[in-house]
Amino acid sequence: MIRLERLTKLYHMGDLEVPALRGIDLEVGDGEFIAIMGPSGSGKSTLMNLIGCLDQPTAGRYILDDVDVSGLTEDELAWIRNRKIGFVFQSFNLIPRATALHNVEMPLIYAGENQKRRDKALAALASVGLQERAQHMPSELSGGQQQRVAIARALVTDPSILLADEPTGNLDSESSLEIMRLLAELNQQGRTIVLITHEPDIARFAHRIVRLRDGLVVSDQPQAIAAGATETAP
């Protein structure tokens, strides 16, 4: 599904070239759950942005579902982001004055989809156990519930890939476990998940851990699934 070949990314700061990625080779198969780890400045966020088609590489190839997306137009990249990839961020990024239901509807609104939009959003909320909170505002939800709404929003277009950037970074331990069990359940249903985290306990839910340092992959190792990772989220 995802194949990166010698992927590099340079940023220009005046006359200086700052290499964020120095030649990444990585494959992620259909239905895998991988965690990307590394110290600050290792290239984790840059790599996530490239995989999510939010940015383009300086050199190298990015093959997604047998299509080289490295040279696609902005419109083509936007279509991929809206249809193939769901994003979950640390800060939830919910609209404060919109209900949970309306927040989940937003990707469908941007895509110009009107048919059964409400039904799809309600189904996405039901998939994360929040159908009864559909009319609540974000301020009326706990941090864990807000992140579940964000996951429902990511799921509403039925993407095959979920990109989760520090999804538990703003949550307490109990809520973090709840969210990771939910992601593990979604992975068991067939979704590919790419997770960025700096927390070893969170990374243990993944099938593989890819470690970055100075813009390079320094290890890529399979691991046993964490105890309790296969349990259904409460």
Keywords:
234 residues; disordered C terminus; alpha/beta; globular; single chain
Structural class, by secondary structure, is alpha/beta
Share of helix, binned? 25-40%
- Rg measurement, Å: 18 Å
Strand order in space, largest sheet: 6-7-8-3-9-10
Outline the biggest β-sheet: 6 strands, mixed
- String of helices and strands: EEEHEEHEHHHEHEHEE
For the record, give the distance between the C-alpha atoms at the N and C termini, rounded to a whole number: 31 Å
Which regions are unreliable across 5 or more consecutive residues at pLDDT < 50?
A: 230-234
| Strand count | 10
Shape: globular
| Mean pLDDT across every amino acid position | 92
Number of helices: 7
Percentage of residues in DSSP E strands: 25-35%
Briefly, what is this?
With 234 residues, the protein is of the alpha/beta class. The chain has helices at 44-51, 74-83, 100-110, 117-127, 143-155, 173-188, 200-203, and strands at 2-13, 16-28, 33-37, 59-64, 67-68, 85-89, 161-165, 192-196, 208-213, 216-222.
